[in-house]
Write a structure and sequence with these properties.
- The structure is a single chain.
- By secondary structure, the protein is mainly α.
- The protein has two domains: 144 residues, Up-down Bundle (ABC transporter transmembrane region fold), CATH 1.20.1560; 113 residues.
- The chain is 93% helix and 0% strand.
- The protein contains ten helices and no strands.
- Helix 2 packs parallel to helix 6, helix 5 runs antiparallel to helix 7 and helix 7 packs antiparallel against helix 9.
- The longest helix has 55 residues.
Amino acid sequence: MKMIAFFFKHSRKALILSVIAGILSGVCNAALLAVINAVIKENGYSVKLLWSFIVLCAVLPLTRFTSEFLLTRLGQDATYKLRMQLCDQMLAAPLRHLEQLGIPRLLAALMDDVPSITGALLILPVLCVNAALVVGCLVYMGILSLTLFAIVLGFMILGIASYQAPILKVQKTFERARKEANALQGHFRTLTHGTKELKIHNHRRQAFMQEELKATADAMRRYNISGQTLYSAAASWGQTLVFVVIGLVLFLLPIVRHLSSSMMIAYALSLSNSHIS
């Protein structure tokens, strides 16, 4: 929220336009599904449906590009401003405080943290697109069938809950990996600045390599592997759950109650499109 407030303060117009463009892109995506399903249902197309399809195909990429372009410019400008602000704060801070933080941590903040923070905001248009698309698809599915809508919503809640559980653990794992990365930068600094001393003292060199450098690098490697593995497992489970729901709509529900082919196609398209986007 603080980062959004920062961007809103410095580039309010660009941020608002980017969010609006992202929402319009999601709405156009959902509207395209309705047009496609209408053509399938009518076994043909009318002039109105044809022009609707053409207009939506033109507006969809334009709005998405506009949103991402504006946010890219905003992100780069914010990276520059944050780095300059952080440099000013470092120069104004007491020397003792800077020494307590350590050079590796300061360098990591300037080179790694600032781009990571501003880069995180670049997903905002994607979130707007997907949020608008999901809401549009849910409304459309609710209009088609409340029963199917309730089933999809139940699986969606299950998916979100089961996805968030491992993601919380992933965040803690990546936090540990980040701490090891800060320590590793300190070891790299020791290696580059103290090469001569390490070459002279063999025992000190061996202790540094085995007990500090290699141990820290190995710990960071293990945390990153663990975090990426959990994240991949959660993403795979979320993908599987989407196709389970699609299979339920296509194969199981028609046995219980009659569903028209156009309704099943509409639900399958909506679920697939909202998942892929």
